[in-house]
Recover the amino acids of this structure.
């Protein structure tokens, strides 16, 4: 296949199931010839499925020697095959980038010939980008399981972010569905990446957790405020001019407004400065939400992952194997959404996996979000007095997000907060009212009873059915069934009752 | 918008000014050292009424500088930046919101940034957020086309965010020559080798770049259509993230409409 248009069609189509499109986690001025990276994560477009398009997400090749059952590119699948040449891919990235179509490249690949062969081709493409084109933009490169450590190292020195997909939550499922992929082959490079990053941090005197922790500037919310304070404006109108020239570069303006984003010498000296992420397929195998969340918690802890992405399984027309849900099975979008919410609670609200989901109820409540669900199970902690409790406690109140909690803390120093102020502070009062008091008064209007509060929270049609004994607990009305990307965009901007900035 | 009016109206005097940031700061200066303003409006939009007198405030660099550094030292750097960005918003009462904010700030000092529940602070915060948000959004949503080695694009932002976008692209494309044209306000950023200026522009001189360079535009459209997962189609979400009013300047959308 020679035609670029056809190649791009095949290789983007094959890459679309990879969820990550984030460019967050690294700030870099143009230290090469073209390109920069912004930790606020710039979205360039949104495709018709509502997902943000930030990176050119393509496979280097979809010619695969493996036969993972859940994958459209598996060896036995009957699909068109194509491969890029390293040079032509590099050109494509630069030309797209110059037109501001994209923020960078997300390069993944099937396993052509062998993991090492494939990775060497990938390295060639990104080396051309970095070294010949002087590209200083964002590159996310996929590590193929089983690749040799020297190659992982080389990719890490060229790319901003690395990822190896864990694919499935348990070794058993992996063995069943992706027999050629061994858990060890996945985990070994993950470990190598984590260790290399930690080593380099120590060498450069930066302790982990200082700029490395997840949630540190890596979400859209935080990015938002830094965008506010970056102040990239030019300066005073040139009054002496005839009115033609309005402003120009670096017009006299105070230093503070010209805060330079950290620039590094050389376009990129660090090993994977944006860290590593991974992805898990949801709904292809029978694991419970608890299993999935526990697995992702340990991935965060063990490998200091920046993100663990979930991807709702979309049937690939491979029912013959009998191992996978049939093509008629609905894509578990809501479940995926709830998992992202749970993930968010772990990353930004200091919830543990065990708090979010216990053994007794191993699946997430599909009717209310995990934070609300936790609050309803733990009414003993509520109502909390908004004028007294700590920041951490405020974060436990449904409808209070990180932004609104911060505002409450600051506002409290100046004056007592009244119930009417809550909305202005960004609290989603509709949800929060059952869990707080203001100056000792409770405004919820119903008793502190999980059932009664749940009644109030659900839309009318569900309230009716709540009384019906026959209603299965996990039935969901079709309300708000959004693409999870609308709730969690690729930059991890998710809103669980955080009316702070976006709601 | 009662709250943004003066607490005690001495005389009903409106100020009109040239619409520049310095002009606005001059108005603030006059408000403190001359007669207090009932309202401040750009001259271009002002509706003369028989009930209200108005003064035309002439922009004065020195007075503007005095207010400028006053905001910085007596309130905060943050407040100064905020005032600047709010001034770029297209809100009809932005000058009066800014004036109320500065009055409050000169009284209370730097702590106004924590007074989130105060209606004036809230209004400022809100406008600031809108302007900043649109800027960030547009950093992603502009599409350049290449003509003879120069990159061109058009935008039609709700707020006057053009200059807020300049440094980002000047750095990113430091070896390129490019122009970002604000069709609505008839001005453009001209940037070459990392240096930029903004100038008023006659729309006539902007080339019709939409028809150029089919090759990359087609590749981009193909990518755009292929990357969507059809089982997850969600146009509502797409439109919420990327409002339709921006679509006419997006390369990738064209083909979908004409198909
Ligand atoms: S290795 Fe497995 S998941 Fe990757 S492309 Fe090949 S078949 Fe698909």
């Amino acid at each position: 296949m020679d035609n670029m248009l056809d190649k791009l069609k095949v290789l983007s189509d094959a890459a679309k199931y990879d969820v990550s499109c984030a460019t967050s986690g690294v700030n870099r001025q143009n230290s090469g010839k073209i390109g920069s990276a912004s930790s606020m994560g710039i979205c360039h477009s949104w495709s018709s499925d509502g997902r943000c398009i930030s990176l050119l997400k393509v496979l280097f090749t979809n010619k695969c020697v493996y036969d993972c059952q859940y994958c459209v590119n598996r060896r036995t699948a009957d699909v068109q095959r194509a491969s890029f040449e390293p040079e032509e891919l590099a050109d494509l990235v630069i030309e797209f980038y110059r037109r501001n179509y994209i923020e960078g490249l997300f390069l993944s690949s099937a396993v052509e010939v062998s993991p090492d062969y494939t990775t060497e081709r990938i390295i060639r493409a990104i080396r051309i980008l970095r070294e010949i084109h002087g590209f200083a933009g964002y590159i996310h490169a996929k590590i193929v399981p089983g690749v040799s450590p020297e190659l992982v190292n080389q990719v890490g020195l060229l790319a901003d972010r690395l990822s190896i997909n864990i694919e499935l939550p348990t070794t058993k499922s992996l063995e069943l569905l992706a027999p050629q992929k061994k858990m060890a082959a996945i985990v070994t490079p993950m470990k190598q990446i984590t260790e290399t990053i930690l080593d380099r941090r120590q060498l450069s005197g930066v302790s982990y957790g200082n700029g490395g922790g997840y949630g540190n500037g890596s979400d859209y919310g935080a990015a938002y405020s830094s965008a506010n304070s970056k102040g990239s404006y030019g300066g005073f109108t040139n009054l002496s001019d005839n009115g033609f020239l309005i402003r120009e570069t670096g017009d006299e303006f105070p230093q503070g407004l010209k805060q330079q984003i950290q620039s590094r010498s050389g376009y990129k000296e660090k090993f994977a400065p944006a860290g590593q992420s991974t992805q898990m397929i949801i709904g292809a195998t029978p694991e419970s939400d608890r299993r999935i969340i526990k697995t992702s918690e340990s991935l965060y802890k063990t490998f200091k992952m920046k993100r663990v992405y979930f991807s709702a399984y979309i049937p690939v027309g491979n029912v013959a194997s009998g191992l996978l849900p049939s093509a008629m099975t609905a894509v578990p979008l809501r479940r995926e959404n709830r998992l992202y919410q749970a993930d968010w609670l772990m990353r930004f609200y200091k919830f543990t996996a065990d708090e979010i989901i216990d053994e007794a109820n191993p699946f997430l409540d599909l009717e209310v979000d995990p934070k609300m669900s936790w609050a309803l199970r733990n009414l003993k902690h509520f109502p909390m007095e908004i004028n007294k409790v700590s920041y951490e406690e405020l974060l436990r109140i449904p409808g209070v997000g990180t932004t609104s909690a911060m505002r409450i803390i600051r506002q409290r120093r100046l004056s007592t907060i009244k119930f009417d102020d809550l909305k202005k502070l960004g609290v989603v009062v509709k949800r929060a009212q059952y869990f707080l008091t203001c100056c000792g008064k409770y405004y919820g209007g119903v008793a502190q009873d999980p059932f009664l509060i749940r009644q109030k929270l659900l839309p009318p049609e569900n309230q009716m059915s709540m009384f019906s004994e026959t209603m299965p607990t996990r039935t969901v009305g079709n309300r708000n069934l959004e693409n999870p990307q609308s709730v969690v965009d690729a930059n991890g901007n998710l809103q669980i009752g955080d009316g702070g900035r976006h709601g | 918008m009662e709250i943004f009016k003066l607490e005690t109206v001495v005389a009903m005097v409106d100020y009109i000014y040239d619409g520049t940031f310095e002009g606005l700061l001059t108005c603030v200066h006059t408000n403190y050292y001359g007669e207090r303003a009932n309202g401040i409006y750009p001259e271009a939009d002002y509706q003369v009424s028989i009930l209200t007198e108005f003064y035309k405030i002439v922009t004065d660099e020195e007075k503007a500088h005095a207010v400028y550094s006053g905001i910085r030292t007596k309130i905060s750097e943050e407040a100064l930046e905020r005032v600047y960005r709010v001034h770029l918003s297209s809100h009809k009462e932005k000058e009066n919101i800014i004036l109320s904010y500065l009055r409050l700030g000169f009284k209370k000092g730097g702590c106004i940034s924590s007074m989130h529940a105060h209606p004036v602070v809230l209004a400022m915060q809100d406008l600031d957020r809108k302007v900043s948000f649109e800027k960030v959004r547009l950093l992603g949503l502009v599409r350049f086309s290449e003509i003879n080695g120069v990159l061109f694009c058009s935008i039609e932002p709700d707020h006057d965010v053009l200059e807020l976008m300049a440094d980002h692209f000047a750095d990113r494309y430091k070896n390129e020559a490019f122009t970002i044209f604000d069709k609505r306000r008839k001005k453009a950023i001209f940037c070459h080798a990392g240096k930029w200026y903004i100038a008023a522009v006659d729309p006539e001189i902007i080339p019709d770049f939409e028809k150029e360079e089919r090759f990359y535009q087609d590749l981009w459209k193909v990518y755009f259509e292929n990357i969507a997962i059809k089982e997850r189609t969600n146009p509502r979400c797409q439109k919420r993230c990327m409002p339709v009013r921006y679509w006419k300047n997006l390369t990738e959308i064209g083909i979908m409409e004409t198909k």
Remarks:
- The longest helix of chain A spans residues 183-203.
- The longest strand of chain A covers residues 276-282.
- Residues A 64, 66, 68, 71, 73-74, 110-111, 178 surround iron/sulfur cluster (CB under 6 Å).
